[in-house]
Amino acid sequence: MDLRLDETQEMVQETARRIAKDILAPRAAEIDRNHQFPKEQIQALGEAGLLGVNVPESLGGSEAGVVSYSLAVTEIAAACASTSVTMAVTNMVAELICGFATEEMKRRHVPKLTSAQYAAGAFGLSEPQAGSDAGALKTRAEKKGDRWIINGSKQWITSGNVAGVIVVWARTGGPGPKGISAFLVEGDAKGLIVAPPESKMGQRASPTVGLTFEDCEVPAEALLGEEGQGFKLAMIALDGGRIGVASQAVGIARAALDASVAYALERQAFGKNIGSFQAIQWKLADMATELEAARLLTLQAAKLKEMGRRFTREASMAKLFSSEMANRACLEAVQIYGGYGYVDDFPVERYLRDVRTTTIYEGSSEIQRLVIARNLLFD
Ligand code: CAA
Q: Could you tell me the distance, in angstroms and rounded to a whole number, from the CA of residue 361 to the centre of ligand 1?
């Protein structure tokens, strides 16, 4: 198996690394503290082609493939997790529209997503009473002539207050997954009411909001795919999204490891640097080994998707292992820093807060285990 990156992948990785270092890292702590949406950072990603990495060039993407996408998310996340989730969800929405919208809708929305003319894209699946059990969602869409009228509410919507376009899942038929359809709703649509951003533990520069739809009208062409196909589209998008979260977790864990290595070489205790002690060495060795395993699982899932092969199980494995690994790595980083890890003068405190949600969003660890087990037992 060839593990070398090709020229395009190296170029995308290098581009993302440069933006991360020059534009994101210097401001990551400040925008987290101020809960400030990373508008200029997203603009820079758009200019570099990183908002549509796996999107056709004809629609404004860079058509560089899924492995490139994964590498780019990792680099961005290592500097600023908030920017990386905004980037990942925007890429996911752009890909979903490319795959299933009408030609007119693709041309209307995708170039604006990839160029950052839209501040972001958003994914409106979860509801106050339906997170893991997405098939139980209650928002409804009724057909009225050539329009759809949407009523209901969504919860935990990343970038829902700034997005130019939101994919909204709503019930058009009976109960369960088969009664669900997906729609494109523009961010300024009449009847769309946006709640104030949640006050979150981490990724605080990425706004998370509730949305309410009160007789929100969209045209017939806003239907994504076929009526009743919405749940499958959500699952297909989330399979890819989970590669994004896995890549993000790998990036945050790498940042935690790099910070820990630097600190271990610098911090003195008992007349030596703390990296001389086996207690610290073993922590670093475990962090590095688990990180490498997560990185390879993630790249494997990305490669399978890129080859057009089935990748549901591998994406869930990558997301499960990487997010759990990254949580352990960030906890250990704080432990290595001691008291300095518990204050916001150093970034490891932010890494720990930022990483916490990676085992929760885009399908919790429990849901990933369910997907993996069902795949082993019944597929
Ligand atoms: N690809 C294609 N189709 C799929 C699929 C996949 N990966 N997974 C399921 N389906 C299909 C099934 O084949 C089935 O279709 P048929 O009836 O035609 O066979 C249909 O979808 C229903 O599938 P299930 O019976 O498996 O559905 P379920 O109700 O048991 O739910 C689940 C399965 C895996 C638990 C799913 O509900 C799930 O993934 N839940 C988690 C939701 C989630 O990840 N939410 C994240 C919110 S978005 C977010 O966090 C983004 C953000 O802003 C950061």
A: 14
Closest CA to 106 of 97, 93, 114, 115: 97
User: Does 246 share its domain with 368?
Assistant: yes
Over pLDDT 90: what percentage of the chain?
99
Nearest CA to ligand 1 atom 5: 235
Known catalytic membership, residue 266: no
Would you say the CB of residue 367 lies under 6 angstroms from ligand 1?
yes
pLDDT, tens only, 290-343? 999 999 999 999 999 999 999 999 999 999 999 999 999 999 999 999 999 999
pLDDT at 193 over 80: yes
123 lines ligand 1 (CB under 6 A): yes
Inside any domain, residue 107: yes
- Distance from the first to the final alpha carbon of the chain: 26
Q: What is the mean pLDDT of residues 29-37?
A: 98
Cβ of 127 less than 6 Å from ligand 1: no
Q: Which atom of ligand 1 is nearest to the CA of 208?
A: 53
3-class secondary-structure state, position 171: strand
How far does the centroid of ligand 1 lie from the alpha carbon of residue 135, in Å?
7
In a domain, 356, yes or no: yes
Query: What are 229's two structure tokens?
Result: 């196909």
Length of the chain: 379
Rounded to whole angstroms, how far apart are CA atoms 108 and 44? 21
CA-based nearest residue to 230, from 328, 100, 107: 100
Longest dimension (CA), the chain: 79
pLDDT at 107 over 80: yes
pLDDT band at residue 69 under the 50/70/90 scheme: very high
Q: Which domain holds residue 252?
A: 232-378
User: Quick check: pTM over 0.70?
Assistant: yes
What's the 319 CA to ligand 1 centre distance in angstroms?
A: 15
CA 159 to ligand 1: nearest atom: 53
Residue 1 lies in a domain: no
The stretch 147-160 carries a mean pLDDT of 98
Nearest CA to ligand 1 atom 21: 232
Which of 204, 231, 258 is at the close of a domain?
231
Distance 208 CA to ligand 1 centre (A): 22
pLDDT at 379: 86
